Amino acid sequence: MDKKMIDYTLYLVTDRELMSCDTIEESVERAIAGGASVVQLREKNATSREFYELAVRVKKITAPRGVPLIINDRIDICLAADTNGVHLGQKDIPCDIARRILGSEKIIGVSAATPEEAAKAERDGADYLGVGAVFSTSTKTDTRPVTPEIIRGIRAAVTIPFVVIGGINSENIETLKGLGINGAAVVSAVVAQPDIETAARTMRAAVEKIK
Fold it and tell me: Whole-prediction pTM value?
């Protein structure tokens, strides 16, 4: 997979607590059908074995469709299931160490809430950033607020792509127009909706409108 060609427009983050269907696999398949272009598998309460087996199953859905599969936090799961990459928070393994472990082919994303964090992530080898929380969100409790001014500062500080995250939906994303974002990372705006495919299509259209 050519990392420079990745489409970050609609970046889906999974959540089994919120999804409106029975399985993670089904939620991912429906979201991709609606236009999700990257999938991050986030499993906070699974055992390592469960997380690995789920990653293998989800990869069977994403790989044939050319959609990158990113593992949240867990470099070991990324390697074991041979997924496309990993997303790291500020409290996870440092990006430069992760790059040394994963090599140049894997995608590494890093969460950033300041221009300084963003610039350091790029220097350390990150391929993209997750910038947030832009709006208040119920899916994470340890977020830091990010203003439009901070987003502009991050855009000026880095050349790599970034997605905004945190409470984003098809209505409020309009307020982020002109800030240079490359996509939106969403959870409940897609997976918690009764019709995941339609929600993904609506969300993707809203992101494309303001990019």
Answer: 0.96
